[in-house]
Design a protein that fits this description.
334 residues, 9-stranded mixed beta sheet, 10 helices, 37% helix, globular, RfaE_dom_I, Ribokinase-like
Length: 334
Amino acid sequence: MLESFPEVSSLFESFARLRILVVGDLMLDEYLWGRVERLSPEAPVPVVEVERTSYYPGGAANVARNVLEFTPFVVVAGVVGEDAAGQLVRKLLADAGADVSGVFALSDRPTTQKTRVIGRKQQVVRVDRESREPLPATIAGKMREFLALRLGEVDAVILEDYGKGMFTQDMADAILLACQRQKKLSVVDPCLSHAVQWVGARVVKPNRKEVLLHAKEPQREGERASLERAARLLRKSWNVWCVVVTLGEEGMLVVEPDGEHWICGIRREVFDVTGAGDTAVALLTLGLAAGLSPRQAAVIANCGASVVVGKLGTATVGREELAKALLESAPGQR
């Protein structure tokens, strides 16, 4: 499979020329790193003595951060709260080089924040602060105006839905219609636990649980037929060109007009799966926007995600890491 790719350096040069718009649920990921040496006398839980704290862009902001590893032309659209977490999300994105003019701050809404406590290189607990309420009509209107203004400047749009209120059906329909009219590639990472239907998207990237949930198929370990049926049903019901299902260490399933293709999994030691889906949708979009086939783009996305799960924290994959992973995975992808 790898021999059918353009030269890797040429591919990365193509990526660097792309302009990508990332729209979705922005988050702040906070990590509390510490030692665990005893149990609490108050409850059967470990006591973590915090030694340091790290902050990363999360959710759609992490998708943007992954895209920024390969191109400097990234526009981000979403909402945060008028709070310290929201200011930090904007700063982290801006410092990485993103255009944050489409990030709106709301006074009556907290920034979505996920705090993970890590002890002995393992996550002990996660604490979420968030609102899932839909955006106020005034902000939704401003968001549509911003997207209409900037859509013509970009090559592709990533729609990252975490179910935190950024997307209503009206918002999703308006964005996809605009993408269709302007012939822009739209790639959706859906949240199928809520009611938004991404009808007319060019590509959707659900995970195993999401695609089976949509099809009302039971989860059966290792059964390819049910996954293929579920992905075909999603493709038909949403009228999309291509469905790419992420399957963790089992790889990916690509369903497009000419049939189904299975991308082999890459087995690595897994430290943290946080953000692997963000890396996958970022690289899938870059590959498709650069002219690769869905199968080729999925191989790249699969390799990138396999690197990220080997890191602790909300991570990205760099050019050298991705090039190395592509070369190492070549025999399994042919």
